[in-house]
Amino acid sequence: MDKIDKPWRNQIGGMWDEIGELxxxxxxxxxxxxxxxxxxxxxxxxxxxxxxIKYLQDGNYCGIDRSRELLDAGIDELxxxxxxxxxxxxxxxxxxxxxxxxxxxxxxxxxxVFTHLPLNSIQKCLYNASMVLKPGGRFYATFFxxxxxxxxxxxxxxxxxxxxxxxxxxxxxYQFKDLGHLGDKFNLNTHYIGDWDHPxxxxxxxxxxSGD
Length: 212
Prior knowledge:
- By secondary structure, this protein is of the alpha/beta class.
- The protein is 29% helix and 24% strand.
- The protein has a single domain, classed as Rossmann fold.
């Protein structure tokens, strides 16, 4: 249960333990090692980050989020967990300027980021990701899926979690092919995984540099 004295946990949708552990276990299953560099896109108050920071070698976790309030709350979470000294690579930014980290990444993760973004903003994110992803690296991203796409004016109610999503407002849903077309613009191959047991029915995909 989320703690009453940590309201930011509910601000990001709750399920602190469940979704934090889901992210961590998913990347471990897909090859994340302590020596890898990870960029947590939309890291917020480190619901997933707290697990990654414990696991990765010092300096290998990087986080970026547009909310200074959430990042400050996340520092409190890390302080409580005795992890504050392990984190030096955190940036508050609204434009996905990943080059500020001056490194390239083996893994990138955007958990519940595309769900709140129009396509033009996703396009900016993917362009900047293509500049910092290592050859052989993977950028995992979750999204609410519109599997049919027959009527873009119709909201979708997702059975798991009961979230209603829209084509033209937050929270957004997309067809996989729409995200694939964006990836193509920046020499990114787009791969569909789909269900990964997300409690609110977000699906997952990943991007790799063309040729990987």
